[in-house]
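Protein chain data
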Amino acid sequence: MRTVDDGMRIYFAPCGIALGHAGRCIPVAKTFVRRGHDVYFSTYGEAVPFVRKAGFQVGEVPAIKPFETEDGTFNIRRTFAHGPKDLMTFSYQVGDELNLIEHFKPDLVISDSRLSTVLGARIMRIRPVLILHQLRIMMPHLKPVLGNRAKLKRAFERTSLEVLGSMWKLSKVIIVPDFPPPYTIAKANVVPSNQYLKKIKLVGPIVPKYPEELPAAEEIKRNLGLNDRPLILAAISGTLAEKKLIAGKLTDIFKEFPDRYNIVLTRGLSEIPNPPDTQEMLNKRLRVYNWINDRYSYLKACDILVTRGGHNTVAEAICFGKPMVVVPTPAHSEHQGIAESIVKMGLGVSIQQQNLTKDELLGGVESIANSTVFMEKVKDAQKFALRFNAIESIYRTVCDLLKVPY
């Protein structure tokens, strides 16, 4: 049997579309490093400098990404038209994974939503573990799908579930970083194939910091130079195109907000330094940053969160007990589904991007601020969420697979 002194070698391969997948792998990887194990990353796109900035070695593989319009809307026609080229890129990805795995010689591979890594690991006879919350891929659409088109959509989604299921099941374990009912975040996506039901492990979302680890909200506000006005935190996530567009639109809207609110907006641009006037903003009602390093302090200090509806951000908001205004990306099936879940659970309100105006956003904020019902439901959800520790669960799962003591 292996011992702790041997040290595990763990290879992480998050999807590089936006920062969410890398963002949840990094705290898991840090836990392995802190406990004396070696870690290596493989990813692409915006995630490469993000992982490197977190202090990890990273190998870059060819990027596969969907086509999107300037507002972040998924362009299904152009994406499908690009399919043959993407298949070629996928084959290059598998080849690069084989080279990187051969170089690092891991004991186990952890893939976050990347099939190329699962295949590469199996070819190299290395055990793959999969992190995946989009078990079912939903076809994006801007308008309601009715009649025969709805039947075709359901048939496509079911077929893709089973086709992908036949490949995802190559993983030893499929870790789903979401809550069980009634607080499942991505309800429409957490629909598994019967092919791998026995391999699924529901661990709760990956949250690297919990509210009890931070000072009281009032103390954080004082340290940040904020007064006692309600604080709105707008934390932007997604691809570069959608982050830039929605951040600009929200900035213009927030400039017109009443003075009774403090507002902090972070554009989610990790590689762009904050503007030189950042210090001058400290006494202003509206502060706009490209990136904030300690977002959990801001999350604990805020009273309301404005979000795109990214899975990680929503999970963190639930754990920190914060009601949300969700502005989901147009035709982004996951964000749209999460926004619907948040509204049904009573944890916030949703505003479609095409309807986003000062009056709509202010109305959404004040419907939350003036209601005790939202806060009661948010606190119930928070109490449920804090029962989970996904990072520890993933660590123990890997130790069990490799027969290493905790």
In short: The mean pLDDT is 88. Residues 323 and 375 are 7 Å apart (CA to CA). The domain at 211-385 is CATH 3.40.50.2000 (Rossmann fold).
